[in-house]
Amino acid sequence: MAASFDRDARTALADGQLRGALRQATDLFAERRRAALATVPDWEGARDRARAIKDETLLHLDRYLEQFTTNAERAGARVHWARDAAEACEIIGRIAEQRGARSVVKSKSMASEEIHLNERLARRGIEPVETDLGEYIVQLAGETPSHIVVPAIHKTKAQIAALFAEKLGIELSDDVATLAAAARQALRRRFAEADLGISGVNFAVAETGTILILENEGNARLTTSLPRTHVALMGIEKVIPRFADLEVFLQLLPRSGTGQVLTAYQSLITGTKRRPEDEGPEQLDIVVMDNGRSRMLASALTRQSLACIRCGACLNACPVYRQIGGHAYGSVYPGPIGAIVTPQLFGLAQSSALPYASSLCGACRDVCPVKIDIPAVLLHLRAQVVERRAGSGGALERLAFSAYAAVMARPRLFEWLVRGVRTLGILPPLRAWTKWRDLRPLAPHSFREQWRARLRDPAAP
Amino acid sequence: MRVSLFVTCLADQFWPAAAVSAVELLRGLGCTVGFDERQTCCGQPAFNTGYRREARSLARRLIEIFESSGADAIVSPSGSCTAMLHHYEQLFEDEDWRTRARQLAQRTHELSAFLVNCLGVEDVGAAFSGRLTWHDACHGLRDLGIRNEPRRLLRHVKGAELVELPNAETCCGFGGTFAVKYPEVSVAMLDEKVDAIERAGVDAVVSGDAGCLMQIGGRLSRRGSSVRALHLAEVLASREARGGPHGR
């Protein structure tokens, strides 16, 4: 994967359309976010409160998960605990079979992307249709999402128009309303015939057993209310203690993610329909999945990775993501949060390049609504890469850093070496620098030489 | 005030004018300035690449060197290396070294922050004619919270006009080893910065870190631009309304 990040990043850089789309979208989201922030009198205070709630929850996660389970079951839901991706897919596949589901609709869920749910269900003959417009576009194109909030951020309008003309048989048009109408028409049919709906979960409230789903298109509302059966998939970190805690998260998430004061739809779901005349599914299954998350609970430093509310602000703010987009990261979770979550979820060996896919500028930490110190976690993971010898640098890199430390501990040797380089003009091969940038030459007189010659004694002429 | 200069290896060898200017500035403001020649690198390249053991050994050295200086403040013409000293504590587990690291961090300041916040000076009597723009180096900006200090200092430079870049706070793509580990990504980031600098029609881009300046300056000169990359200290030590900074 180390090699593939480098290669895929370079492929992305050569794609002018992709880079144009990324610049436009990340600029727009950053601007909207700034405007939306201004409507909260105490943004910093809200961030602190949200983080404190997450910290408290993660410290007693077992307790809150049990409380959530008890209360969700009391309200009529069935709660399933899945250790890993295979278990989660098996549970969902079994439910679909038991319910005799023939047509399945799905709203946006990163957890489902994480476990490749569609692919695994397809092996059982079940083919869910993505109903979020961006996810629908990505599914039609046979691609994967490249952003956790805006799945088709990498596609231009013209590309989408061509895709719809080909797959939906409509006339080529780059009118946004026409394109949206074509998707809506196709999706409405699928909603009408669906007998099972799969959704994600934004927040799961322990004290009431309620799940909250945020969205803008109404497709999640339809997915969770029209079919007879609703399956909600969530990671263990989605639980929060109290209903009142939603107040702060609802201030933070839409503003950070899309720059909205509030998303168009907030679906609060507590159990199944109670009376026959009520709307909603007869059966609600909530799948609570670990899939590597509990490993992050081990230390306060790594634990903060689980505070993430998947707003995507760090992707939009990241100057690396802005250049290369999501696919180069080779993970369902791209960008800064992906670079810390991917190695922890799926193992450092497969993703040892990701902790290095950052200039450590810290823009992600600045915008994170729950103040995750992403650079600190990146540095921790880099130290693990070195410790476990999982990186691409190998023996040569280790030798170079040993030599560096040895030289830097000996100022005379350091000075002698630099002077040697300066006079002989022998520089180590620095093509990775000089191919694009001029290298500033070593100064003819270093500071320490000037210090000795004329600066140490200020009285001297 | 007795100041011990933390010159940084990059400034020492590639941008000595920044450090020479810092000495002159500080002496001009009445500080006694010392420089311990045993200092080399703060260990940031090792720390940022994951080589904690190597970084720790260099951190111990620098802590001992600056403890022996007896200075009231340690001042550096680099936000990034100052921030590294502020990170030293997390390299250690035993309480003694953690305390020593913390005490060092408390008296270590980036140059512009030291001038404005510790000495209370905004007008250092500099003169420099030309349009300037400030590039916020990431670690100074986000690890140390330095945003207004360099701008205040630059606004007081006679003859200089300070213009803001729309992406002043965006990373230039240097990131230490990042610049050579993923050079294409680094240069893509850099080109957005350099494009903005050229559009701003400035004579010089000014920053507080030799790393960023080598990155930005290296691309400017490769693109044949006449815009110069200058360290903040060079501009602040400049006394000529024409002719620009000395030491070049």
Radius of gyration from the alpha-carbon trace of chain A, in angstroms: 26 Å
The CATH superfamily of the largest domain in chain A appears as NagB/RpiA/CoA transferase-like
- The CATH architecture assignment of the largest domain in chain A turns out to be 3-Layer(aba) Sandwich
Characterize the overall form of chain B.
globular
Q: How many β strands of chain A by DSSP? A: 10
Give the overall silhouette of chain A: globular
Q: How widely separated are the two ends of chain B?
A: 29 Å
Low-confidence stretches of chain A: none
Reading the helices and strands of chain B in chain order gives EHHEHHEHHEHEHHEHHEHEH
How is the quaternary structure best described? Answer: heterodimer
Overall pLDDT confidence of chain B = 96
- Per DSSP, what share of the residues of chain A sits in E-state strands of 2 or more residues? 5-15%
Fold-level CATH name of the largest domain in chain B: Rossmann fold
Number of helices of chain A: 22
What is the fold named in CATH at topology level of the largest domain in chain A? Rossmann fold
Poorly predicted tracts of residues of chain B: none
For the biggest sheet of chain A, the summary is: 6 strands, parallel
Q: Find the structural class of chain A using helix and strand composition.
A: alpha/beta
Q: Into how many domains do the coordinates of chain A divide?
A: 3
